Amino acid sequence: MELARAFSTMAADLPAIFSMIVVSVVGLVMLTVAAFRSDHPSIPWLGVAGMVVASAWELFQLGTEPGTAFFGAIRVGGYAAFINLLVLLAGIATTILSVPYLHRLKHDYGEVYALLMYATVGMILLGSSNSMVSIFVGLETMSVCLYVLAGLIREDEGAVEAALKYFLLGAFSTGFFLYGIALMYGATGTMYLPAMAQADLATAGGTLLFWAGVALFLIGFLFKVSAAPFHMWTPDVYQGSPTPLTGYMSTASKAAAFGSLILVLYYALPAERWTLVLAVVAVITMVVGNVMALSQANVKRMLAYSSIAHAGYILVALAAGTEAAFAGALFYLLVYTVMNIGAFGVMALLEWDGREGRVQTLDSLAGIGTDRPVLGVTMVVFMFSLTGFPPFGGFFGKYAVFAPAVDAGLTWLVLIGVLMSAVSGYYYLRVVYVFWMQDRDDVVDARQASLGGLPPVSRTSQGVLVVCAVGLVAMAFFSGGLIEAATGFFDASAMAAAGGGG
Fold first, then answer.
1. Residues sharing a CB contact under 8 Å with residue 345, sequence separation 6 or more, in sequence order
2. In this structure, how many other beta carbons lie within 10 angstroms of the beta carbon of residue 267?
3. Is 47 exposed, middle or buried (0-12, 13-18, 19+ CB in 10 A)?
4. 345: enclosing H helix or E strand
5. Residue 9: its pLDDT value, please?
6. What is the C-alpha to C-alpha distance for residues 485 and 59, in angstroms, rounded to an integer?
7. Cα–Cα dist 162/304, whole Å
8. Given pLDDT bands bounded at 50, 70 and 90, which one contains residue 501?
């Protein structure tokens, strides 16, 4: 292809990455403002405005014909727009929740919000990639930003430990990821996902090379989504990171990683080869996450193990490998993002220990429902939804991932998932009990003695939590339409339209 033609083609494809362009440019503006005054109050709201514009664009793109851009490296429309919209909404909520939180900790630097923007850019690229190269670029852009955000409070030893563990183990998993890509490319001669599925693995050696690459590739991805046994970093990193940013790591990054993994499984790999592997990983992940969460006294650490368990529920759908299962996984990612952003947001507003909530226990929050009724009520909604009680979104999310697995003959896997969901009720409902029913006389004095007691709650933060809680209730009425729309991303015409590659 002539160079002049290549440049003209790329210029014509710029609207396909409008969201990334907007978020990136706004991030540069934020850095410019921060160069003159790092704590200028307009910086985070510039980021919110940029992501709102990008979200509006992706909302419009949901109904457009799916396709590819930049010579087949990026997907646009439909599926990609859904993942991008999910990541952007998580970024908006996180930024709003972070403003009072970081101001209270005196770390409301403009660079922090810019890093949040560029992490979002990486997630958008990751979730809409059609090539192994763009997957890697998106994954590393996201990861490098999150490494820095995890260690934001450098004066705290827990934050330093979190950043170091995340960086070292993340770099180690990247090695598996890259080596897997190299082997898959060596066996197929292509980096494009649909072309990999069509490659002729003529020899036994080529087949072995390809599936060895797939195994290493999956190890790298399973690390990013906190699936057991690659989950060891998650509790310490979540516990030591600033709480609103922890919620962002546990939702937006997981949505982007799972979104990319679904594309790889759907377009590049024959389902009969990986179903049992993912089913076994799902079992281990659900059991480890739920059992370990039972003994946690710290809510952030409990939510970390909870996020591991929820990765297991999504893997149940991926193990089924059908279009309905993939659509159910997308709906579950939506529900999970709303639940966890809300739960971590509540905990961010209840921190009184001055250490990002790392050392305060659940029992120290006894009676919060009376002291902070809005936080108490919204936390009840989040906990019941995480457990899977109707009529909240969590119930319909679990139905969306379990029902297709039953249809695919994985009834034994669904039974384990249901049993683990019942186990999770103990630690989720314990939070409700402590907030509303446990005697607070023994802990109020301790809270008041530490940094003057509970911090004030901003109206914008309460508004985000109320929107999340109302959204979980509204999903009871719109779950069917959302799942049906997600199923449309995987029909034959969509696959043919977006299956381009070099």
1. 93, 97, 244, 247, 461, 464, 465, 468
2. 19
3. buried
4. helix 323-348
5. 67
6. 13
7. 13
8. very low
